[in-house]
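Box 4.2: Ligand-aware structure prediction
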Amino acid sequence: MTTMSHSSLTILLLCLCYVSFSEALNGGFTVEIIHRDSPKSPLYRPTQTQFQRFSNAVRSSIHRANRFNQSFLSSNTVGSTLAADLGNYIMSYSVGTPEFKLFGIVDTGSDIIWLQCLPCKICYNQTTPIFNPSKSKTYKTLPCSSTSCKSVTYNTCSSPQGKSCEYSISYEDGTYSEGDLSLETLSLGSTNGSSVHFPATVIGCGRNNSFVSEELSSGIVGLGSGPVSLISQLSSSIDAKFSYCFAAKDDKPSKLSFGDAAVVSGSGTVSTPIGFHDQETHYYLTLEAMSVGNNRIEFRNSSSGSTGEGNIMIDSGTTLSLVPGYVYSKLESAVAAEVKLKRAKDPLKQLSLCYEGKFDEVHAPVITAHFRGDADVKLSVENSFIDAGDGIVCFAFLASETLSIFGNISQKNLLVGYDLHKKTVSFKPTDCSKQ
Ligand SMILES: *[C@@H]1O[C@H](CO)[C@@H](O)[C@H](O)[C@H]1NC(C)=O
Ligand SMILES: *[C@@H]1O[C@H](CO)[C@@H](O)[C@H](O)[C@H]1NC(C)=O
Ligand SMILES: *[C@@H]1O[C@H](CO)[C@@H](O)[C@H](O)[C@H]1NC(C)=O
Ligand SMILES: *[C@@H]1O[C@H](CO)[C@@H](O)[C@H](O)[C@H]1NC(C)=O
Ligand SMILES: *[C@@H]1O[C@H](CO)[C@@H](O)[C@H](O)[C@H]1NC(C)=O
Ligand SMILES: CC(=O)N[C@H]1CO[C@H](CO)[C@@H](O)[C@@H]1O
């Protein structure tokens, strides 16, 4: 009797804890991601005020736009000029055999998974212990001659003969990581309790690292489209599909799904073609117009003569949304005409439409983003305003002359699914804290 239940428990535990990955992937899988400002986050800074969070969000959006603007202009250097100001989400994952648990910053704008490794020449203090590859049975460095090494532009191999592959990535804010491009088993904890394993995943084992803004994490988990990003490496097992859903409140966990679990369908779902993605990491959609109530503001600029294909980047790591100046000014006046609260000065002098009042007092009209293919995405107050602290709320859009971005505020409470085979992004209104 005792033996029986004991052995079935063992089997059950084996099933729960070690699902081989082809098996586990039939139905896809979902992992929880934690907002960095959630009290559950290992990177939580309880001393930050709402104003400090707001000012970080605004500053990093502008910084990020500049970074992409530059990489956009010289797109052949994207891989090596990634900048920080990374995503706001943290993913728990494990590397190695036995599994070693880490917290990485999730970033759709990065295309590598890197983590600090022992022994390091220079490491910052992360909250969890640092991974020691010599204690893992599945760790292997890659030679310069390997396909993976050659596929990344930021390897530092000078003579491809024999030497092991070293990488060096630096970010505009001074963050950098240098180390060994390696193969290791990566494990993700599914929300259903299973662990999903990906043997021989290419990771950057960082021996010399500095992380300016997120110094408590173990590194970055890149969801971009470059050859060694998490998404590209999982691609065949996840059928090139992933989705995310950002909860409106930072203290609620959000979800990141892969494979069939990332199919967005059902009532309210709209899909739009991916205009293009640049060589490395970023996805661009086509935004035809935006409406404030019934007031439609066209994006198409006849004087430029272009079709507007791929005119806006969708990005989970930029807080605000950025639109061209001529769109922004019309958008702002349409919103200003409807919101009845008392105007306030933007404490940062970066956003031009701010009000005195609380979030739930802003009775703004629904703003609709009209993406190509009749994909209308309705933006609620939560999707278009930001809490600036001290009783001030601001319209969360910025004017930007060269690059438009559909940022993370605009994507709250939307299930956002990428299907890289069909080359579409789908949106479905969803209470992300409940799904
Ligand atoms: C968890 O999900 C995976 C993938 O869909 C599935 O293979 C596995 O059986 C599930 N495990 C449990 C305990 O439900
Ligand atoms: C992008 O770069 C151009 C030229 O360097 C600059 O004039 C413009 O202000 C930049 N745009 C943004 C959004 O930073
Ligand atoms: C890292 O932590 C150690 C021990 O807590 C401390 O002595 C050291 O100054 C810290 N280093 C940095 C760069 O914060
Ligand atoms: C660490 O990397 C930085 C940035 O590339 C470099 O300047 C520095 O010399 C490196 N330090 C060591 C000890 O390798
Ligand atoms: C087209 O764009 C230019 C600058 O990019 C702007 O000055 C002009 O107002 C725009 N035209 C329309 C019709 O919005
Ligand atoms: C929905 C979402 O993720 N919003 C976040 C975007 O980034 C800022 C800056 O870190 C956060 O404060 C938001 O919560």
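In the box above, the bound molecule is 2-acetamido-2-deoxy-beta-D-glucopyranose. The chain has two domains: 24-51+86-259, 264-429.
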